[in-house]
Amino acid sequence: MIKKKNMIGQIDLIIIKFAIYGIYWFYKISEEMKYVGKDMEASPALWTVLLFVPFAGLWSYYKFSELYEKVSPDHFNKWILWLLWVVFAPAVWFIVQTEMNRKADQNRIVTP
């Protein structure tokens, strides 16, 4: 299930929790993309653990970017997203979270 997240609230959590929330966000948003992309081979837990291993984190960013390319409506290029991870990670957060919030709005069931 996709959960809409408050963008300002997330910034507050990252600042207050000294970036630990960013690691949690990486895992949760990877899980949501796995669900949306119906990719049973994706391994968000492994990717999150590998963020703490030198150079393996780059592979985690690549796998994350690859999955995002699959679920984004315009098939955002995975290499551009990967490069953004390396150069300016907050841009990745903004791009991915905005799209996942859009998907959450689309999947919301409205009852009369």
Secondary structure tally: strands: 0
- Poorly predicted runs are none
Radius of gyration: 14 Å
How would you sum up the global shape?
A: globular
| SSE succession | HHHHHH
Number of domains in the coordinates? 1
Amino-to-carboxy terminus distance = 21 Å
Mean pLDDT: 88
Main pleated-sheet profile:
none
Q: Report strand %.
A: under 5%
Which structural category fits the helices and strands? mainly alpha
Q: Helical residue percent? A: over 70%
Oligomer: single chain
Total helical elements: 6
Explained architecture:
This protein is an all-alpha fold and 112 residues long. The chain has one domain. It has helices spanning 7-16, 20-37, 44-50, 56-71, 78-87, 89-107. The longest helix has 19 residues, at 89-107. The chain is globular, with a radius of gyration of 14 Å. The chain starts with 6 loop residues before the first helix and ends in a 5-residue tail after the last helix. The model has no long low-confidence stretch (mean pLDDT 88).
Quick recap of the structure?
The chain is mainly alpha-helical and 112 residues long. Helices cover 71% and strands 0% of the residues.
How is the topology of this model organized?
Elements: H1 7-16, H2 20-37, H3 44-50, H4 56-71, H5 78-87, H6 89-107
Features:
mainly alpha; globular; 6 helices; 112 residues
